[in-house]
Write a structure and sequence with these properties.
Layout: H1 8-21, E1 28-30, H2 36-43, E2 48-50, H3 61-65, E3 70-74, H4 83-89, E4 94-100, H5 125-134, E5 137-145, H6 154-159, E6 165-172
Parallel strand pairs: 1-2, 1-3, 3-4
Antiparallel strand pairs: 4-6, 5-6
């Protein structure tokens, strides 16, 4: 599996969840530029298309024009001002989304050096569930998991027990 250079626990759980629900012959549109996890998907036989770095809050053209069967957004919705608009423009019937959960003992992530690497949202699970429901998706499977860090202190201790990530597989509800 993926060790040293990657957040191995998160990537391993996400990869196993992906394999459980998506076949390798289904083209994936992965929201965001090529990244370590899109490379892992490709290494595992998936055909992956990524966005090109456009401002996704203002430009969802690729969501409407690319040819794909599955939509993925792994740790990107928290960076967007309006994830609802993204989901409205997804043309796939299958989606996998993971988000960092809002932690009561820690403020939202904000990089001190990179003005784009910030979390506009840190969701509670019910908020993502509601967002999916409002955009026509039904959750089929979900998992929460922790993200321990190797530091001392109360907050690092709480990270061993408090789920940090929420991973969802959902399918579009068809209208009759």
């Amino acid at each position: 599996m993926y060790e040293k250079t990657y957040p191995s626990k998160r990537f391993n759980i996400t990869l196993e969840f992906l394999k459980k629900h998506i076949k390798t012959n289904e083209t994936i549109f992965d929201l965001g530029v090529p990244n370590p996890f899109s490379k892992i998907m490709e290494d595992n036989g998936y055909q992956v298309i990524n966005t090109k770095g456009e401002d996704l809050d203002n430009n969802q053209e690729a969501l409407r024009t690319e040819n794909y069967k599955v939509f993925t957004a792994f740790e990107i919705f928290e960076h967007l001002l309006n994830p609802y608009t993204i989901l409205e423009n997804v043309k796939a019937d299958k989606i996998l989304i993971s988000i960092p959960l809002r932690l009561w003992f820690s403020s939202a992530y904000r990089s001190k050096t990179d003005m784009w690497d910030r979390h506009y949202h840190e969701f509670e699970d019910w908020q993502l569930d509601w967002l999916l429901e409002k955009t026509g998706f039904k959750i089929v499977d979900r998992v929460k998991f922790t993200h321990p860090v190797k530091k001392l202190g109360l907050r690092p201790l709480l990270r061993w027990f408090t789920p940090r990530y929420y991973l969802v597989y959902a399918e579009r509800v068809t209208s009759n």
